[in-house]
User: What shape does this take?
Amino acid sequence: MSLKEDTRNTSSHPTNLYTSLPQTCLPIVYHPDYNITFMGLEKLHPFDAGKWGKVIRFLKEERFLTDADIVEAREATEEDLLVVHTKNYLKRLKWSVVVATITEIPPLLFLPNFLVQRKVLRPLRTQTGGTIMAGKLAVDRGWAINVGGGFHHCSSNKGGGFCAYADITLAIKFLFERVEGISKATIIDLDAHQGNGHERDFLEDRRVYIMDVYNSHIYPGDGHAKRAIRRKVELDWGTEDSEYLQKVELHCEGALNELRPDIIVYNAGTDILDGDPLGGLSISPQGIVKRDEIVFRAAKQRGIPILMVTSGGYQKSTARIIADSILNLRQQGLIRGGAGQSEGLPLRATHMESSSGSAGSTSTRE
Assistant: This one.
């Protein structure tokens, strides 16, 4: 099912995902419930199901933020999910065998569904709520990062590849329906895998421009979904930093020059890292940090709000790389750190630099 162009919904359901937040909070969204731990079953998938908490821990250690700076994610309700998902799809998630297939953790099919809901799907619903919240924060503050999310293989009626909820589609649909002045979006998907979920959702929606850079030889190889990609960059096995960064910068600039969106949704998967068991590319940690800088700089130069989600990444080192990338964005003046820094506390691994709001925006920048 595609999400076709429609008029603004003037009777949106009540939601707790768009409530007012203190200006003292950074536009960084997280909740401890993101992390999946249950009898060691999470270890049966190569995904590090605790990486999100590790990112936050590293950022705290570097004095980038404190608990008081973090926006606490809220779980997306069924009503929230129905903005995109079909009722039939949500009913199917009440079967453990379906969830086992989507998450690629076969033993889940032997567990009662109430446990699967509580230990697996609730964390994913909380991350999905976090992405929706971060979308509104990005518009209000100029940028936002959901430390989780990026479930780009899930569409309105089908999950897969550890993606049970279509958080990217949901965040965009919420903005279109609820935020005045947001009528065009660009998805920049730099995970190693094709983002076939949001591509299927926006296949017939010209309000959404999709740029996707991915290894053309790996999952999902969804030819139908590729029709939605307006700027497609297919990579070969083992692509390294120089070629990769050149292509990212060239096509990121080209995409944003071709269509100026009201919001950028940046899917910043770290499965492009050299040695990743699923990504098949050979990008260094420094290359990932530089990649994120390129995207944020392009957004800031144009005054376009940007929402970042962390998506795939299947090595234990990816949490440290994500944290280092966020610290670098602060160093480069592309985002700002927490209240502790304004009081003169130095970052232990970075240099303090001043930053300013993005040009051309009337929103308050954090």
